[in-house]
Amino acid sequence: MKKMLKSSLAMLLMMGSLISLSTTGIAEEQVIENQTISLEQIVEPSEEVIANIDKELIDQNDSVAVVTETDSKNALVNEAEDNSMVVKEYDTEPGRDLSECVEVKETLMKQDENGKWVPVKPGDTIGLYEKTKMEYDLNFSNCGEIKKGDKLTLKFPKELEHSKAEATFPIYDENGNQIGTAVIKPGSNEVEITFTEDVFGNDIKGELSFETRWDTENIEVGKEYPIIENGTGNITVGPPVIGEGQLLNKTGKEIEGNKLDWSVKINQQGLVIEDAVYTDTLGPNQKLASEIYAKYGYYDTNNEFVAVKDVDSSQIVLTEDGFIINLGNLPYVKDGIEAFVVEISYHTEMTDGGESGIYYNSGKLTGKNIETEEVEVHNDVIEGEGSIGGNVGTGILEILKHDSADKQKLLAGAEFDIINNAGKVVAHIVTQENGKGSVKNIPYGDYTVVETKAPDGYELDATPHKVTVAKDDKGLVTISIPNKKTDPTVPTDPTDPTDPTDPTEPTEPTEPTEPTEPTEPIQPTLPQTGEKAAVWLTAIGVLLVVSVAVIKFKKVN
C-alpha cells in the first residue's frame, strides 16, 4: 500500500497534544507504522509526525536539509529553511520471513592436507585456531516469488564464530547482479539475508558460505561439541596447530573494539641461540593498544605451551613503530628446566576504524649463531559469499546507432558487447539497417555496453556506457549511441619524375693485334746408325703435337 500526500500539511506539537492544521483544506494526523510512504512536495512550512520511518529531506537545491529518524512515539521532523522539501527516500513495507518456507541443508567444512574444503565428520578434531566454513544449500521452491524486502535468517553452532566484528557481504544472482545482502552480527550466531531485488521463478535455489572458527571464549580444548552435518554428531576441540619446526611464527586475528590480536612463537625448533633479539614492526593504520606479554616456556607432550618465566619488562623497548625484545641466550634455564621457546602476544588498534580490512605486521629474529629470520603476516581474513539462482525478471536492451551530426541518419553494422557486473559478456548486439539492435530476455540488472566494431566510415566509440534494465521501465530500455564520421584522408601530391640521365659514351674498340709470323720449323737431321727407331718415335710425337695444336686453334677461332 502506498499513501501519497500531495497537498500541504501543517502540524504542531503543543502541550503533549497533537493538533493538526491545514492551509489547503486537508487536515490529517499522520501516525503511520509499517507502511510505504511517499511525500511528494510540501509547499508550506510544516512539521511532520511520522512513525517508524527513516527519512532524508531534500530542499529545492537538492541539498540535504534534514536527516531524521522517527519512532513509534512520533519523533518530530523539522522543516527545511526555505520552507520547501521533498522526501527522496522512504521505507517500504516489511518483507516476509522466508525461514518457514525455505529448505536448508547446512554443512560444516574443514581444509584437508591439500587445502581442499571437505565436510567435517563426527569424531573429527578441529584445532583451536583452525579455520572452518559453514555451507548452506537453499531451496526456495515452496516460497513462491521472492520480493524486495524479504528476509531469511540462518543459524550456525553457538560454539563457532565468524568474526568479532559485524560482517556484511553481498548476495548475487547467477548473472552477477547483486540481489541481497547478508549480515552476521558478533555474538548472534545468525546470518540474516535481506533481498534488495525481486526474484522470480518456480525452482529458486541458492548457496551461501562463510568462514568460521572456534569461539575461544566459549569452548575448552579437548572437549567434544555437537555439530550438524547430515545428522547430529560430535567434534573435538584440538590444541593449537603450531608451525612445526619453525624458528619464527606469527599470526593475527580481529577481535572486538576495532582491535587485532597478534601472537608470536619463537624457536619452535629448539635451537641454542646466543643473544637472541626479536624486533616487531607494526604495519600502517595500527597502534599498540595493550601491554606486551612475553614468556619463556616449552611445549608438553600434548603440544601445549607451558610458561616458565616472564621476560623481564626492562628488556622490552618500545620504538616508533613497534618494539624490540632482548631475549638473551636460549634456552632460558630455570630450576633445571630448559625453556627453548618464547611466546609473545599483544593487541593493536585499527586507527582507520577497520576500513582497510587487511592489516600487516612483521617480525625479525636475530642471534649470534643463527641466520636472521624474518616474517611478514596479515590478520586472518574471514570471508563469506552467497549466490541465489532463479530469475530476477527479464527485459529488452535496445541500442540505437546514428550519425553524431545527423540523428536521422541511422547506421547499420555497429557491434557491441553487453557485460554484466561480474565482468562476463552475456550478449552481443549488431545494429541493422534501421540503426537498431537488441537483446531480449536479459535479466534485470546493471550492464556495461562496449562498442567493439564501428559502422563502415565511422570512428569507434570507446566510451563504456552504463545501463540498467529494470521493471520500472516496463522491461525495455533504449540507449542511443552516436558515431562520428572518420575524417577523409587527403591525397598526397605526386612527386615530379626525375630527368633521365644521359647515356655514357661507348668506348672505342681497340685495334686487334697483328698475328706473329710463325717460326720456320727446324730441319730434321738424318739418323745415324742405330738411331732409326728413336727418330721415327720423335717424328710421330711431333705430328701428334702439331695435330693437337691445329685442332685447338680451330676451336678457338
- Mean pLDDT equals 73
Helix share, percent: under 10%
State the end-to-end CA separation.
124 Å
Form type: flat
Model regions low in confidence, pLDDT < 50 over at least 5 residues: 1-92, 542-557
Q: Determine the CATH topology of the largest domain.
A: Immunoglobulin-like
**What is the total tally of β strands?**
42
Q: Round the Cα radius of gyration to an integer and report it.
A: 46 Å
Question: How many alpha or pi helices?
Answer: 1
- Strand residues, percent: over 45%
Strand-pairing-aware structural class: mainly beta
- The biggest beta sheet, please? 10 strands, mixed
Please give the domain count. Answer: 4
CATH architecture of the largest domain: Sandwich
Reading off the top of the CATH hierarchy, the class of the largest domain is best stated as Mainly Beta
Pfam family, one: Collagen_bind
Main location: secreted
Keywords: Cell wall, Membrane, Peptidoglycan-anchor, Secreted, Signal, Transmembrane, Transmembrane helix
Transmembrane segments: 533-551
